[in-house]
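Filed under: proteins

Residues; backbone shape codes:
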Amino acid sequence: MTTDEQRKVILDLVRDYATQKEQRTPFVPGRDAVPPAGRVLDAEAYVAMVDAALDGWLTTGRFNDEFERLIAARIGVERALTTNSGSSANLLALSALTSPLLCDRALKPGDEVITAAAGFPTTINPILQNGLVPVFVDSSLPGYNPTVEAVEAAIGPHTRAIMLAHALGNPFDAAALRELADRRGLWLIEDCCDAFGSLLHGRSVGSFGHVGTLSFYPAHHITTGEGGAVFTDDPLLARAIESFRDWGRDCYCAPGRDNTCGKRFDWQLGNLPCGYDHKYIYAHAGYNLKMTDMQAALGVAQMARLDEFVAARRANFAHLTERMRACEEFLILPAATPGSIPSWFGFLLTLRETAPCSRVDLLRYLDQHRIGTRLLFAGNVTRQPYMKGRPYRVAGDLAIANVITERSFWIGVYPGLSVEMLDYAADRIGEFLGVGF
């Protein structure tokens, strides 16, 4: 057989294997877990990964080119650049705003960046890692995002940017915040890591900010295992992001290619001698945060199912909303931002002060019944041990962030959950609260 024929045999065998491996078995309540999140793979996902492996191209390549194109088209932006995680995506997005390419608009050490106190640490950490100062604002219930009014009230003389995550898939008012940012001369970064597929006023989240980010960790809307992406309409920002991602180099040749600019040995930058190889001229203190082509191949296969995944998340969310209405005496149910259609990451609940139990007792009970739960990540991050002694400013109070820290949790809505699983989770919550359905 030729190598092409051998490849076909291998991929056909992989497809058969994966079809059997990924068959879903009937749910048995109490025996089987109800996870809060997880990856959903089909045979084509396995085929894509093996197909990439058979290329023997171990870094970013043809699959990554296609993946970046698909991401940019889906968000509705000019350029998407993949990276090795959503956390790295946030680091690249914020670091790009410090680039000297931006001249007077570049962020400098000591500048302030407004962000939510309640959320995931890697929305906040790049601010600290770049020598900037986070300014924490409170969130609101039942949307779990900061209001535009809270953000505007937090702006001070040193404020230069806003960096917020769409809370568990529910969009913050990115349209109004972009208008505010433009009016006040600020940058806006949209962390969409939990919100791929969410819409605001008919537009994809991520298309409002100057730059946006995604995560492809297995818990997220699509997965590449580890992985993420940064995207923008601004060619200067795209150049800075690519440089920070690719060792900080000034050269923009793709891996395995040389002399894209046509003058590889004609540059003179810094104090280097004229003709110094452009592949080894560095414009930024960068990293190596690229994605491998095997990861990208999985991403391409997953993109083909994104609409299916988003529809399943919305349907699961709607089902839980109906089931949990009977518990509203004791639970605050989540609500979408006006004008939005979220691609929900989870079903976020907050115990009211009148609830007959503590959160930890409820979560222990659900854990005993194999129902997975998660908190809203770090809660009020100013209460986390790693924040002790770090520079930050608090604008207003963080009353809701503290409520989230003490009384909020979420259960899953991801596409791998069946109606039987959702009903089982709802029944156990109602049972513990003493609510009959």
